Hints:
By secondary structure, the chain is an alpha/beta fold. It has helices at residues 2-10, 42-58, 70-76, 117-123, 136-147, 177-184, 190-201, 214-228, 257-270, 299-304, 326-336, 353-364, 367-386, 392-409; strands at residues 18-19, 25-26, 32-37, 63-68, 86-90, 104-110, 127-132, 158-160, 169-171, 208-210, 232-234, 317-319, 340-342. It has 14 helices and 13 strands.
Amino acid sequence: MDKFVTKITTTIESPSYSSIPGGMQVTSSSSRYVLLFPFPTQGHLNPFLDFARNLASRIPYILIKIISTPDNIQKLRPRFLDYPTIDFVELPPFAENAENTENTLQMLITETLFHMSVEVAHSFGSRHVPLYTSGPYAVSIYNSIWTHLPHRLTPADVLTLPDLPPNFTIHGNQLSQNMIKAASSYTQDSPTTFAARQAEFCKNADGSLWNTVGVLEKFWLQHWENSSGRPVWAIGPVLPISSNEKERGGEDSCILVDQMMELAKGLERSEQRFIWVLRNPTGFEVGDKFRSEWLLHGFEERMKQKWQGFLTNGVPVIGWPLGSEQYYNSKLLEEELGVCLELARGFDANINGEDVAQTVRLVLEGDKGVKMRKKAEDLSQEMKKVLMKNGSSVQSLDNFVKTLRMWGEEDMKPR
């Protein structure tokens, strides 16, 4: 795999002159470039694409190359016509020979899934910075779990994580399926070793970019910076510059039909106002008309007289994490920020309509719900500020660009 990443970095083709709005031109024959290497699925790819646009608007004189699959590139290129300094590079075949170009790789920005890329970047005398599509709270938990296998937990067991603040615990039913398998019967198999190396990789990078907001994870960003000894930049939420983006959803998280029917029963029984957004079932196109038979019989007719034309400020969350870091995002929202109440955990959870109704009423009517909505409103106001002209996320991205320029002026030697 290391040879594969090395192959990619040494076979980047040199694009011709690119015209930039305002009359500036860039030639790649002697230019430095930044290489982005996201995992090629929607949930991982989209934050990288949005980050590339934001970066290109701040440093129009540096080329940005994004590595992806041929199918992805064919779909993505038309969306980047207004960004002449952004180019796409197809994943090359597995070949041993490679020709160096005259381009200088200044920085490699990848997913943490490509942990081997740190050593590759450093071997070229380049900097390496991962872009985390999850926050430091979730990633810290994830890394600690994989670093200290085996655990051998039952769903009811409580696990104390040694790398985190004192008395920080999670429950056995907050482990994803691959973690449960590794934790219950630990072996040095490839998936386990791969995940453990991801955690080790974090210590060797030159810094870290985060698709999160300081107001949400200030303590954990500081914890990450202190423990790694490297700078962190919280640049989230990474959003598309254009609001016309499509195909932003993935298919990794879905619930079964009977569970969806229980949700429908619960929403109706709660007698609360709601807007329910549903994707069409697998096998139907996104543009297909929604069919009434996909819900309870008569559901739409019964709801028609209860539709409302407004939303209330301060919207709390009812959580149902299904896998991966969703468990820790839900934990962050509920235990750290106080704006969430979990309904269930995992695909195997058995819910019924009455449970849903009680949870909805508790969040929207009870005293706890009042406090949650107040906290949600306060966070909402703070979140709006981060993307303003002098907001924390804007400043953080600007600081990253300054660091990128500073590193570009330094002569780095292969490590």
